Amino acid sequence: MKNSKYYPWIVVALLWVVALLNYLDRQMLSTMRDTMMIDIAELESAANFGRLMAVFLWIYGLMSPVAGMIADRVNRKWLIVSSLFVWSFVTLMMGFCTTFEQVYWLRALMGVSEALYIPAGLSLITDYHREKTRSLAVGIHMTGLYVGQALGGFGATVSSIFSWHVTFQSFGWIGIIYSLILILFLKDKKSETPVSTPQPTSLGETVKSALKGIGMLAGNISFWIILLYFATPSLPGWATKNWLPTLFSENLSIDMTEAGPLSTIVIAVSSFIGVIAGGILSDRWIQRNLRGRIYTGAIGLSLMIPSLLLLGFGHSLTMIIGGGLCFGIGYGMFDANNMPILCQFISSKYRATAYGLMNMTGVFSGAVITNFLGQSTDAGNLGKDFAMLAVVVAGALVVQLLFLRPQTADKKEK
């Protein structure tokens, strides 16, 4: 099966489900506060809930560069399988929690296990897919994240029918079973680029090799620009993941059992459209212009700017839904091209490490904004502060267009 011409797309399909579970298991919590705080009183405070969401992001961010370095040096199949199994087991255990501290530490452990997936999954996809299908393949994979985010929005609905304990336990078992399926069908792929340096054979040599990779990336000016370009839109990106249900509930004066599914479905559907459209456009554009992926990402950022103003200041269903649709399409176009743009500046030997560092900066931005918006919600300023994020996205757009100038469609190791 691995030698089939269709197997690269089978890999995308297999990892699509992993991406879905990756976001579903983390996203459920954002809509389940009302049902959980009946049993866990500390969750009545929005600031405490913000802490619970933020600890995942801090741990996830710290682990991301480590996860990237690991993915560049081990069999990615087993890294992905192990990651999925552990975070699914953590999700299962969250269904047995009785205290805030238990949920808090399991949430931190989930940050460790989930961080191991994204660099490995994306680097595996970009090794299987070259210039003509790379953005589309990454984009399709990203739709798994959005579908998981949308399904996570039903966490409040499902937990109100059954219980939040059963909800966590059920999805934990689903992930554990799927990790066994991956063992049978997922295969790693070695880069076709010849490696001129010997592979490390000891822990010391492995650490030295990893530090060398970080040093190489640190000396690449384009990589620093990509870091800024990636991290800045991550502020509204994570804000929508963690606080959009609350924003919908407040601005439209509806219950969270309605706001959760409505907000996540709007973002997921529009993001689905954005990544597919952005992937197809980017793959075609780069055949004629090396900056095609850059321009496609810029279109996405441009759409996000007015959408944040609509989401923050809108109080009608039309404005809020319109803002959500515009944001999702724009963020999807941006999201589909992050790894493909990175491939234009960084060789396959260091891509997982590079994406791990990118993920860290993006997630740390998310942790900061998640904590900030928790305090903003308690102060009654969530909408206004949400809208102000349009300014930072505009800054990222200018930096991207001025400074990202690739010389090749696929960077090769010298």
Annotation keywords:
414 residues, mainly alpha, 17 helices, 79% helix
Could you characterize what this model shows?
By secondary structure, this protein is mainly α. The protein is 79% helix and 0% strand. It contains 17 helices and no strands. It has helices at 7-31, 33-36, 46-71, 76-94, 100-115, 117-128, 134-152, 155-161, 164-185, 203-218, 221-252, 256-285, 292-313, 317-336, 338-343, 351-379, 382-403. Helix 1 (7-31) runs antiparallel to helix 6. The longest helix has 32 residues, at 221-252.
N-end to C-end Cα span:
32 Å
The secondary-structure element order is HHHHHHHHHHHHHHHHH
Task: Bin the helical content.
Answer: over 70%
Structural class, please? mainly alpha
- Mean pLDDT metric: 87
- Per DSSP, the total helix count is 17
Number of strands: 0
Largest sheet: none
Short description:
With 414 residues, the protein is mainly α.
List the helices and strands and how they pair.
Elements: H1 7-31, H2 33-36, H3 46-71, H4 76-94, H5 100-115, H6 117-128, H7 134-152, H8 155-161, H9 164-185, H10 203-218, H11 221-252, H12 256-285, H13 292-313, H14 317-336, H15 338-343, H16 351-379, H17 382-403
Helix pairs in contact: 1-4, 1-6, 1-7, 1-9, 3-5, 3-6, 3-16, 4-5, 4-6, 4-9, 6-7, 6-16, 7-12, 7-14, 8-9, 8-12, 11-12, 11-13, 11-16, 11-17, 12-13, 12-14, 13-14, 13-17
